[in-house]
Structure formats: C-alpha cells, structure tokens
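Team,

Forwarding the record for the chain on the shared tracking sheet. I've put the sequence and predicted structure together so nobody has to dig through attachments.
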Amino acid sequence: MQRQQFLGLLLGAGAGLLSCGSSATAISSRPAAPGPAPRRRIRAICFDLFTLFDPRSVVQIARSIVPERATELCEAWRTRQFQYSWLRASAGQYRDFRAVTLEALAHAARSQQVSLSADQSETLVSAYSRLQPWPDTRATLETFRSQGLRLATLANYSPRMIAELLEHSRLSALFDAQISTDAAHTFKPDPRAYALGPSTLQLERDEIAFSAFGGWDAAGARWFGYPTFWVNRLAVTAEELAPGPHATGASLTDLATFVNGWATT
C-alpha cells in the first residue's frame, strides 16, 4: 500500500471515531426519562371486616355450646369456610358467604365428631354477625371521617351479614357504603370482587386504600392495584406472595399513618 493511500485510510478512520463520539455525546445529553407519576391522595378506605372486628369472638360463642371442642371446631370451620368459598367461586358454583359458612360448619362438626342441633348451628353462624370490634375501631373510624375520607366495607360477608354486624356494633353511620362481594357473585381475591370498590365509590383504584386482615387478602388487593395496608393484628407469618402489601402494621393507628403519608412518599 502506498503512503498516500495509507494516510487516506487513517484520516477516514479518524473521522469515523469523531462521528461515533459525537453520536454518543448526543445520546448522553438527552433528558432522562420521566420518573413515575406522583401518588394521588387517598380519598377513601375499603376495609376487610376482620381489621375492624375480632373474629375470635366466634370461639367464645362456641365455648358456650361445645366447651371441650370449641377451639378445634372453630379452626376446622374457618379453614373449610375459605376452602369452600374459593372452590365455589373458581368452579362457578357460587353461594353467598352465609350459606358457605353453614356448609363449612356442618363439615367441621362431622370432622370433629361434634353433634350440633339446627338451633346451635344457627347460633354459631349468627356469631359472625355479632363480633366484637377491636379496641381502636370506633375512634379511628371517627378520625378518618373527620378527615373527609370515605369509608366502605369490602368483604366476603353476604349483604345481610354486613348489615347485621355494623348495626349490632352501632357503626353503620360511619360507613358511606357496605360493599359485599356478593354483588359480583364471587369472593376475594377474585379481581372482580376488588373492582366493586372503585365502581361503588366512583373513584380510581389508586385513590382507595385497602385495609386487609389476611396476608392472602393483602396480596390480592395489591395485585388489583389498591394502595394496600396489612393490619396484621395477630402477628402471623407473611405470605410468600410477591409483591405483597405496601406496608404492614398491627393496628388501625398504623393504617392511619400509612394513609396520611401515602401521597408524600
């Protein structure tokens, strides 16, 4: 290769390098992609009922009927209650939660070799509408109301069960809506159940905080798109269901801190 040709090639390569450098500079100088949109202020809260009421109240009623077997009966009953609700929902064989609760009780009684009369079974099922509120329930709900937040239940309970429970505890007036998953003929964690919150309250899902009692419910609400807080009152082990709730605490006071700080974090 002649000297003149070599110099020509060298100059051409240099121009290419300068061109590449210029292109890289242009790319790196572009503005960064916009970050995530700021969070919207929470305007409402949907509650799973057990974040407001102690489900262990049922065991106290059971002890008056089957003193020696109350704990075992209620544990078996609770497990079958959820199994039956999820099986019926997934199979398209829906029955409301009161009916499912009665079916589950009949199975639990047989499995625990407990004999229940029709009246005793009715007393136990009705106990779910006579639960005791947690000590912080009324005061925290009143505070939320004073802050202008709209409050609603969003529960697997049948409409009748929700109405009876809130009336019995004299908390009905604190709620803007009593949402039962019965309206969608399914149960949580079906997304159709969670979707009743935005459609009833006429708000976007990210404007509604969800207060979950069970870890599975916290996962379902987060997957749906609610700002989700797990009120882990009984300090149970977290579920392996990523991404899980946005935050966790042991009381409604912790929930209030989460709601008030949501748009600023």
